[in-house]
Design goal:
Keywords: Cell membrane, Disulfide bond, G-protein coupled receptor, Glycoprotein, Membrane, Receptor, Transducer, Transmembrane, Transmembrane helix. By secondary structure, the protein is mainly alpha-helical. The chain has one domain: Up-down Bundle (Rhopdopsin 7-helix transmembrane proteins), CATH 1.20.1070.10. 79% of the residues lie in helices and 3% in strands. It is built from 13 helices and two strands. Strands 1-2 form a two-stranded antiparallel sheet. The longest helix is centred in the middle third of the chain and has 41 residues. The chain is globular, with a radius of gyration of 25 Å.
């Protein structure tokens, strides 16, 4: 049994650093810079959680409950929901890193936490791609847009996006596993137990599927949409809302900046099956690129507020309405004696309530 654990741990040490690095036998001099990188990553994770939870909650509240349901608000609502669900699970990963990559939450939360992270990545980029396509069709093909751009059609698209994101993120539920060694439990991708060739194939396939469907194809789609939009808008002199276009473009650029390093390091990580030459670079780069990728989950609501004047106007109007209602309630409340006295003098607040 001990030989089996040692073999598994050796495999684990030499493969798949991402989100699960643990090397108790490293020299202290080599380990110190890595610990500094991990603490920087930890600070970024906490920043993402502190900013992302209230930011996405505000977007969900207003787009889901306060504003009129439109195709556009449904896109941004689901984008915020994807980020919000991921952020709810982020404290698990924060504690994992803080405890020197010791996973104390059990096997099923190990699987669920990784699945939610993959689901968020795919759902976010797919909704950004849908928003770009929707913007292109709306401006360049208004007849088609007017005929098919309805709430029912958008709900079908949203359902398909969530199903596809769940399907692509599903392997995390199967391959994610826990391993206990020297009273230390890690949560890692168990692509194999004994067959290294099979593990190599699975690692390559899932990494390239994640890169192609979660990054390259959506990025090319969004780029083509915006390039065609720019050329055709100039050619036809179409009047567009520049603020809205800048908002969408900023959200797409934020995704590009945040996720590009993550995917590059994920592909680079495949080299560890053949050589350990870049291990230290990967051990430093992957946690930082992962933290940068997580940062995208709190950037979208900030971009809405900073760039979109329409969002600002709606947000301010909604907040003003809430404050007005709150102040009205306060002004119409008081002690029992005050209420009795007001009732005798026919307080207009009570009269309005009675009506």
């Amino acid at each position: 049994m001990e030989d089996l654990e040692e073999t598994l741990f050796e495999d684990f040490e030499n493969y798949s650093y991402s989100l699960e690095y643990y090397s108790p036998e490293s020299d202290l001099e080599e380990k110190a810079p890595l610990e500094a990188v991990h603490w920087i990553s930890l600070v970024l994770y906490c920043l993402v959680f502190v900013l992302g939870i209230p930011g996405n909650a505000i977007v969900i509240w207003f787009t889901g409950f306060k504003w009129k349901k439109t195709v556009t608000t449904l896109w941004f609502l689901n984008l915020a929901v994807a980020d919000f669900i991921f952020l709810l699970f982020l404290p698990l990963h924060i504690s994992y890193v803080a405890m020197n990559f010791h996973w104390s939450f059990g096997l099923w939360l190990c699987k669920a936490n990784s699945f939610i992270a993959q689901l968020n990545m795919f759902a976010s980029v797919f909704f950004l791609m849908v928003i770009s396509l929707d913007r292109y069709i709306q401006l360049i093909h208004p007849v088609v847009s007017h005929r098919h751009r309805i709430l029912r059609s958008s709900r079908i698209v949203i359902t398909l996006v969530w199903l596809l994101a769940s399907l692509l993120g599903g392997p995390a539920l199967y391959f994610r596993d826990t391993l206990e060694f020297n009273n230390h439990t890690v949560c890692y991708n168990n692509f194999h137990k004994h067959d290294r060739d099979l593990a190599l194939m699975r690692h390559h396939v899932l990494t390239w599927v994640k890169f192609i469907f979660g990054y390259l194809f959506p990025l090319l789609t969004m780029s083509i949409c915006y390039l065609c939009l720019i050329f055709k808008v100039k050619k036809r002199s179409i009047l567009v809302s520049s603020k809205y276009s800048w908002t969408i473009l900023a959200v797409v650029m934020a995704f590009l900046i945040c996720w590009t390093p993550y995917h590059l390091f994920s592909i680079w990580e495949l080299t560890i099956h053949h050589s350990s030459y870049f291990n230290q670079v990967l051990e430093a780069g992957i946690p930082l690129s992962t933290a940068l990728a997580f940062l995208n989950s709190c950037l979208n609501p900030i971009l809405y507020v900073l760039i979109s004047k329409k969002f600002q106007a709606r947000f301010q109007a909604s907040v003003a309405e809430i404050l007005k209602y709150t102040l009205w309630e306060v002004s119409c409340s008081g002690t029992v004696s005050e209420q009795l006295r007001n009732s005798e003098t026919k307080n207009p607040c009570l009269l309005e309530t009675a009506q």
